[in-house]
Design goal:
Layout (H helix, E strand, L loop, with lengths): L40 H23 L5 H4 L4 H4 L3 H16 L3 H17 L12 H32 L6 H16 L10 H27 L17 H15 L1 H33 L13
Helix pairs in contact: 1-4, 4-6, 5-6, 6-7, 6-8, 6-10, 7-8, 8-10
Length: about 300
């Protein structure tokens, strides 16, 4: 007659309040990166085309030969690139269509764009204090590059409608802010990097990107300056080195203080409010579950 071996005692019950986080082992896989808007083949092609046209529109004073017809029409050429607005709309539309954007992602895009548009007028005209930039950095970081480009472009368009800032500069604002926000989504460590290191990285990126945004907008408006009014304006037919020196002097004289204020404001708000805003955005994206298909139960469900 065989004797049954004694069974091992049952493990003690888990203490109250213990959740799933207590059961995570070091080998558990980290949560996947959320992509509310995915950049597919069509949207990537549209983005590449729009970026190429935008770069040509911005850097043509340095690329065109001195004797070219473009230099002879320096005051008219920037207006020709207002068609960027159509291309930008095509990029956003392609990204949204390929992502099969659901109502939750549309709501998130609308709320963040409206918040950014409302933040932009705060401090306008005062040393470049523009709080919307830190929100764009944090949103792009959490929601990814595709959502970031769409958010940056839509926010600038909504802000222009809100403040009456519609003009030939608007496509360049939308494109540069789209680049700005998309770049935050391309920073390293989107899943594992957290805490102080992540905040310092976002603050450093916001500082540099604030100056880059100002430089892009200077390129968009520099050629409008009458060459007879200043010796730092674009000189049609002058060598590239001369125009480059004029442009650097133009940036220092007209926008350096403003760009510095924008950069410092972005760093301060990122370090002060970044932890709370990042937690709120990540909690909202987890609850929204963008990549989960919405289903409806039948009458007997």
């Amino acid at each position: 007659m065989s004797r049954t071996p004694p069974t091992a005692p049952a493990p003690p019950p888990a203490p109250p309040g213990a959740g799933a986080r207590d059961a995570v082992t070091p080998s558990a896989a980290p949560p996947a990166r959320v992509h509310a808007v995915r950049l597919g083949p069509r949207s990537l092609a549209a983005l590449a085309l729009t970026s190429a046209v935008g770069m040509a529109a911005l850097f043509w004073p340095f690329l065109a030969p001195p004797a070219s017809h473009l230099s002879a029409h320096a005051q008219d050429a920037p207006w020709l690139f207002a068609g960027l607005l159509i291309l930008l709309v095509a990029v956003v539309a392609a990204a949204i269509s390929e992502s099969d954007l659901g109502p939750k992602a549309v709501a998130m895009l609308g709320v963040l764009a409206a918040t950014g548009a409302a933040l932009r007028p705060i401090g306008a005209g005062t040393a470049g204090i523009e709080p919307m930039f830190f929100l764009m950095v944090l949103s792009g970081r959490v929601l990814g590059p595709g959502f970031g480009f769409a958010l940056g472009s839509v926010t600038m368009f909504a802000s222009a409608l809100l403040t009456g800032g519609v003009g030939p500069w608007l496509p360049f604002q939308m494109l540069s802010m789209g680049w700005f926000t998309m770049g935050a989504g391309l920073l390293p460590g989107p899943v594992r990097l957290r805490g102080r290191v992540e905040l310092l990285m976002l603050a450093a990126y916001g500082f540099l990107a604030a100056f880059a945004y100002g430089t892009v907008m200077n390129l968009a408006g520099w050629t409008f300056l009458d060459s007879a009014a200043s010796n730092i304006s674009f000189a049609a037919g002058a060598p590239v080195a001369v125009n480059l020196a004029h442009f650097v002097a133009y940036c220092v004289a007209t926008s350096l203080g403003w760009d510095l204020g924008r950069a410092v404001c972005t760093v301060v708000l990122t370090l002060a409010l970044g932890p709370a805003v990042l937690r709120a955005l990540r909690r909202a994206t987890r609850r929204a579950a963008f990549e989960t298909a919405v289903t409806f139960d039948g009458p007997g469900g």
